[in-house]
Amino acid sequence: MDKWKTKIAVITGASSGIGAAITLSLASHGLTVIGLARRSENVEELSKKLENSEGKIIAIKCDVADLNSIKNAFKEIEENFGKVHILINNAGMSSKVTILDESDYATERINSTIDVNFKAYVHCVRECIKLMKKIENEHAMIINVGSILDSVIPYPHRTIYPTTKHAVRALSEIIRQELIVSECDKIKVTNLSPGAVKTEIASEDYFNSIPHLTPNDIAESVIYLLSTPWNVNVTQLTIKPVGEKF
Ligand SMILES: NC(=O)c1ccc[n+]([C@@H]2O[C@H](COP(=O)([O-])OP(=O)(O)OC[C@H]3O[C@@H](n4cnc5c(N)ncnc54)[C@H](OP(=O)(O)O)[C@@H]3O)[C@@H](O)[C@H]2O)c1
């Protein structure tokens, strides 16, 4: 990880769960980590946990469901840091509504899940690549946090969540190929698909009833991805807890 020391990483959804664990882990390896979230105060709290590290954690308030909020966040990053080496698209929400639910509540949940879990990934990549192009001869990496539900189909009653994760998986591969043909081949792209991870995304009772990972398990996998040699691109990484049935 020494090669990434002092480099700039941006992560969405840094205020809890998987994103918070990755933020702390990268900063403790000496990176400057810019954490985007609506609860930016949670990201500020994380920096108090950093001990004996050259790394830094910087919080930016951002609602990734709002394109202007994304644009403003990246403008602030450009003004203060000039460039970005790592983007981790991680902010996400679950959605339990079914396609047959005609309520306004269901319409709102469907739209916001698509906005946060998919459209925000597209827009953060678009904004971030502009700043990755400024690193010239250095290397860069984009990690999209998907889900095992990006390839396990049967999951009724959650209609939109697996659909957005399928889209993210396709997006990851398309970005990788598009960057190569656009001569941005120093930017590696990985789609990271975790199984169940005990976080705020679902209830404690739910996670306690099934095998699950911890957010730190996912942070470890990000360190693995970043530690691969420059010529190695792990394009897809799926991580399940031992005993996960689907
Ligand atoms: N936990 C699992 O079992 C599991 C499994 C597979 C994949 N995943 C994926 O892992 C990622 C992280 O989820 P998690 O489990 O760590 O859940 P979490 O603890 O609920 O964290 C979700 C994060 O997303 C952020 N977020 C949600 N809506 C946002 C918005 N509109 N604008 C900005 N940030 C927003 C939240 O920040 P604010 O609320 O502060 O904005 C929070 O930091 C998600 O993409 C999820 O789909 C999770």
TrEMBL record:
PROSITE patterns: ADH_SHORT. Signal peptide: none annotated. Residues 36-63 form a coiled coil. InterPro entries: NAD(P)-bd_dom_sf, Sc_DH/Rdtase_CS, SDR_fam. Keywords: Coiled coil, Oxidoreductase. The keyword Coiled coil applies. GO terms for molecular function: oxidoreductase activity, acting on the CH-OH group of donors, NAD or NADP as acceptor. It holds the Pfam family adh_short. Belongs to the short-chain dehydrogenases/reductases (SDR) family. This is Short-chain dehydrogenase/reductase SDR. The lineage of its organism: Eukaryota, Metazoa, Ecdysozoa, Arthropoda, Hexapoda.
